[in-house]
């Protein structure tokens, strides 16, 4: 079991705040520091001082940390072109000495696209573009130096690219794909991912999603055990039940809401919480928990 910190800075965090959290995570022995890739707050929070770019942030953290791994849950394919994404991630991997993990998704939050003039196609096209970007990004990284990479797709075409720069990790950084989609997501994970992540769901839903990816790996002729299976969960600890309830989402909750949150997310040191985390290769724990 690896425990990794996951932050949602669009809810209100500057680079300086993220740097403090990343350094603390490294000093306290966590395995990795991840951040979301969003440009707009969600819910009733102010979101101040405003969004920070995921890969600009990770580039800075790459030079300010020395051990902890750095990644995204998940970089949105709608935000960037595949070639420039491959270059940026490879450069940050070099800057970190080979500590990057590339979480990549199709993009889903329509409001942030509308707020920052980013095109947001329909779901089918987003997944088409996502799949082509996966092929291009991994292809650019994996092309041997001195050779050229080409790709012809519906949405993107690459012609005789040198596939440079190369990441520090060879042939490429680990690729993470997440979500609970029942058809396309398992197939893409089996083909491209080193890790499959299920975000913020209960034990039965998580187990079912893991099963679909294992089945997809088998159908693709890949050993299901070659995949790392992980879950993002809100994990909260306290010295007493009262402190535990008080720390959940940093606000008091009525007794019924607190009990509902206890049933949904791991907390404290209860036996059932240990059962929630069992058999998961990595757990991404939000820093605010």
Explain how this protein is built.
With 289 residues, this protein is α/β, with parallel strands linked by helices. The chain has a single domain (2-236, 269-286), classed as TIM Barrel, CATH 3.20.20. The chain contains 10 helices and 11 strands. Helix 2 runs parallel beside helix 3 (82-96), helix 3 packs across helix 5 (123-142) and helix 6 (184-192) packs across helix 7 (203-219).
Overall 3D shape:
globular
Oligomer: single chain
Strand content: 15-25%
The helix fraction, in percent, is: 25-40%
The biggest beta sheet is recorded as: 8 strands, parallel, barrel
Our count of domains comes out at 1
Q: What would you report as the Rg, rounded to the nearest angstrom?
A: 19 Å
Nearest-integer average pLDDT: 89
Write the CATH homologous superfamily.
Luciferase-like domain
* CATH domain topology: TIM Barrel
CATH architecture: Alpha-Beta Barrel
- Per DSSP, the total helix count is 10
How are the strands ordered across the major sheet?
1-2-3-5-8-9-10-11
Q: Could you give a quick summary of the protein structure above?
A:
By secondary structure, the protein is of the alpha/beta class. Helices cover 40% and strands 17% of the residues.
Supply database-style keywords.
globular; alpha/beta; two-stranded antiparallel ribbon; 289 residues; TIM Barrel; 10 helices; eight-stranded parallel β-barrel; single chain
